[in-house]
User: What shape does this take?
Amino acid sequence: MDATEIRGKEDSEILFDLKKAEKDLFEMKFRTLTEGNADPAKIRRLRREIARMKTILQERELQIRDQESR
Assistant: This one.
């Protein structure tokens, strides 16, 4: 998911996706520890997606980029 796609969503949708992504990241890390065969690239992509969502929510809260909270 890229930043323009995230910016097109409502705050509640972003929060829902953020919670789901954080849960998925936890499960991936747990699987890596127990099974030892997780794809590091997937974990990296998920971490970046989480950071993107948090950044956009913070921008909206601070009203950066002339965007209003949705």
